[in-house]
Amino acid sequence: MRVLVVHAHPVETSYNAALNAIVLEELEAAGHAVDHLSLYGEGFDAVLSREERLLYHDVPDNLTPAIRSYVERVKAAEAIVFVYPVWNFGLPAILKGFFDRVFVPGVAFEMRGGTLVRVLPPKRKIAVVTTYGGKRSRAWLVGDPPRKVATRVFWTVFRPAGPVRYLALYDMNNNTEPQLEAFKDKVRRAMARF
Predict the structure, then answer these.
(1) Of the candidates 104, 107, 100, 52, which has an alpha carbon nearest to the alpha carbon of residue 75?
(2) Which of 9, 45, 70, 139 suits a disulfide with 16, CB 3.0-4.6 Å?
(3) What is the DSSP pairing of strand 125-131 with strand 33-38?
(4) Rounded to whole angstroms, how far apart are CA atoms 28 and 10?
(5) Which residues, at least 6 apart from 125, have a Cβ–Cβ distance to it below 8 Å?
(6) Residue 123 to residue 75: CA distance in whole angstroms
């Protein structure tokens, strides 16, 4: 299976980077063709420019050279794994910008007679590997928006055959080394069976 791995963390020595490396290693070991998209590593510009916004609904002019290769990578993928931290109960800005700039009309959806129609071919599988600095109870109190974005919005955008696999480590900043290692093992097992 062709799997796009989208990583969004700026520090190459972070725990999140270690999780990303595990995802890549396990998917490749399982025989998948992996396309690694490190948003920070590739210098992805998350800012939707004025010009892009003005062209947003003008298909195909909205498919600018700056995003064309990213669109091709998303379309070529049969499955996608997102690896990122939760910051301030949301996606890192660079990942949010990736969605804002790449998933434009004509790529992700079309407007037909005032109705939004999905046009992105469904993906077989979608998974998220993420970390939270706070406890799950704290996230639960505010409705855990990152989990809802992944399990509801990502499912709606990509239409995988099953539910979005959401692997989250809560309270990362207070986890012990054995707990951090246990989560790495959980990610290894999940990606080996992806």
Answers:
(1) 107
(2) 9
(3) unpaired
(4) 23
(5) 1, 78, 79, 80, 160, 161, 162, 165, 194
(6) 9
Q: What is the DSSP string of 104-167?
A: -BTTTEEEETTEEEE-SPPPSEEEEEEE-SS-HHHHHHTT-HHHHIIIIIIHHHH--SSPPEEE
Predicted TM-score (pTM) of this structure: 0.96
Half-sphere exposure of 42 (CA within 13 A, CB side): 18
Quickly count: other Cβ atoms within 10 Å of residue 8's Cβ: 26
